[in-house]
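One-letter codes give the sequence; each number marks local geometry. A record appears below:


***
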Amino acid sequence: MFRKFLNNYFGFNKQQRNGLFVLCSISLLLLIIRVTYPSFIKPDELVIENIQVYEELIDSFQSVKKQKSKINTGVLIAFDPNTVTEVELMKLGFKEKTAKTFIKFRNSGFKFKQKDDVKKIYGITENFYKKLEPYIIIHSIPSNQALAANSKTTKNASQNVVELNSADSISLIALKGIGPAYAKRILKYRSLLGGFTHIEQLKEVYGMQDELFALIVQQCKVNPLLITKINVNTADFKVLNKHPYIGYELTKHLVNTRKKTTLNADNIADIIQDEAVSAKLLSYLEY
């Protein structure tokens, strides 16, 4: 009947009718399967093992998260920078990294004598310091402790001297007159030089004024044995040119000369042809 209907109303030939009939039959079969198949499927029972353990882990994680959120609340209360703890600093609004730097700086031996000493801590911005300043309290040292401290000042003076070629930024910041910016400049220039051979080289640090140099010179010393030397016969152009005492023209001259002869302690001064440069540079060269 279906084939006769197709032939009468659509004019399909026999081959077309058979093809359409097969297509419709397949579609009908797929529809029946789609409708009836879910009724034959029964899902397996879902079993979660150790659910109590998972619940305890989740509760523990949420508890730690709440504790961390409570620590860094930024509630400003009075504090003494010489005794405040790391946790208390974080409650005051310090970032964890800055709080650790604060404690490490203090543990290096630095004593906060006035409020603005807090600004020496790397990571404390001017705006943050203005918020903290009204709450900073520096407690006086009891008189008997002060007398004891004064009696030890001369004895321990040498222990407070900073060796410039091995000092880190915290040690440098502990020097009177040196803040984070100057400490960073000193370390950068030390790296470019390969180390200091004498303390007067601090005057070559960018921004170093005579007044500041005079203030810190008694607090520093230099061990020239700790400098890193450059092998002038093997170092490439960039390494030589990077040194503060070797300009571009001298670098080019040294590289061209060593192609013809080996540079050594006997001929290097004649090759450099500048007594002032030689006096500063020769301590940094090896052959």
User: Anything to note?
Assistant: The longest strand covers residues 162-163. The CA atoms of residues 233 and 287 lie 6 Å apart. The beta strands are 162-163, 220-221, 230-231, 285-286.
